[in-house]
Design a protein that fits this description.
globular; about 15% strand; TIM Barrel; eight-stranded parallel β-barrel; two-stranded antiparallel sheet; alpha/beta; disordered N terminus
């Protein structure tokens, strides 16, 4: 699991997020209201490139007469898939704590999507369900990352009804094709069917689920090894693969640079993979790193950027809080504001 950029306070992260939107360095702290249910404005477009323009992929319902320009007429207009097809660059967060409260705060904060991580987080399907319900309450799309690429895990995850599903360690187009088959009902795939009773179909109440599920679902494959980089363009070109998610930490480990993901050779390998993904036609997705921030990724054509991890945010805030208190004891300056900056209010205020 990559170590994402998680340093700094919540205000700093919100400021960086607005800078990501405007593609410039933040100058003032935004005034955010937790009671404001309106999302941050996200109408910016990705950098245009005729050479690296993702192609529309077909899906089980692409031949449906109700489909226009690759988007189902019945598809939610603000779904992740629709927004990507409209040229938006989306900013999200990974959730490893499996806390429904944190998931709800994530949605209220304004992230475009949240990835509930069952690969490196401690939770399973039941825990993920609670997070999905919390995110749904804030109308924030959820993506489930699987512990492994298998039909059983995919079936159980898809039955919960996430907008996206992420398959780890995809090293070849053959593996990518298998991943897609896990997401589709026969005859297009091998997904087991219980569509009359699962959450994905509103427990059978959504009578149009079988016609539209392919248009709604975002299928994501992770490229995170040297072998995967070599096949990145082919993986990206597999029918049904909507996004390719880069995994910089696992890639650096596979190259012998576990402790140095920013190594020149790793960065060069990442550029090779990125070019392959964009030429293959899928949307390019990735993690922000200390040496490779959200704006850098956006500039290189990334369409989905994950900027932080919930556990990392809390860790940084907790460590910083303890540090400030201990420093105040040493300096005897409990009432002073550090570095002349405006003090942050505590929760009790």
């Amino acid at each position: 699991m990559p170590t994402l950029s998680t340093t700094g306070s919540a205000t700093t992260n919100a400021t960086s997020y607005l800078a990501f939107l405007n593609h410039k360095k933040p100058t003032t702290k935004p005034q955010l209201s937790l009671s404001n249910s309106v999302k941050f404005p996200l109408n910016f477009k990705t950098l245009k490139s005729s050479r690296f323009s993702p192609k529309a992929k077909s899906s089980p319902s692409s031949s449906n007469p109700s489909t226009k320009n690759g988007v189902s007429a019945s598809s939610a207009p603000n779904s992740l898939k629709s927004r990507l097809q409209n040229g938006e660059t989306l900013y999200g967060i990974f959730l490893l704590s499996f806390s429904p409260t944190i998931a709800e705060i994530t949605g209220l904060a304004g992230y475009d999507f949240a990835v509930v991580d069952m690969e490196h987080g401690p939770g399973g399907i039941t825990d993920a369900l609670h997070c999905l319900r919390a995110l749904a309450a804030t109308q924030t799309p959820a993506i489930l990352r699987l512990p492994e690429s298998s039909p059983t895990w995919a079936k159980k995850a898809l039955d919960l009804g996430p907008q996206g599903i992420m398959f780890p360690m995809i090293d070849s187009p053959k593996m990518a094709k298998k991943a897609v088959s896990y997401c589709r009902f026969p005859p297009e795939g091998i997904r087991g069917s219980a569509h009359t009773v699962v959450r994905a179909s509103d427990y059978g109440i959504d009578e149009g689920y079988l016609s539209n599920y392919g248009e709604e679902l975002l299928i994501m494959c992770q490229v995170e090894s040297e072998e995967g980089v070599k096949k990145a363009e082919e993986i990206s070109g597999v029918d049904g693969v909507d996004c390719v998610q880069m995994g910089p930490l696992d890639l650096s480990a596979s190259m012998g640079y576990l402790w140095d993901p920013g190594h020149k050779k790793v960065r060069e390998m990442m550029r090779v993979a990125e070019k392959g993904v964009l030429e293959g036609g899928a949307y390019l997705c990735g993690f922000a790193m200390p040496h490779d921030g959200p704006i850098d990724l956006k500039t290189r054509g990334y369409h989905m950027v994950s900027g932080t991890v919930d556990v990392g945010l809390f860790r940084s805030a907790a460590v910083d809080d303890v540090r400030k208190f201990k420093m105040s004891l040493i300096e005897g300056s409990d009432g002073e504001v550090e570095d002349g900056k405006d003090g942050e209010k505590y929760w009790s205020e």
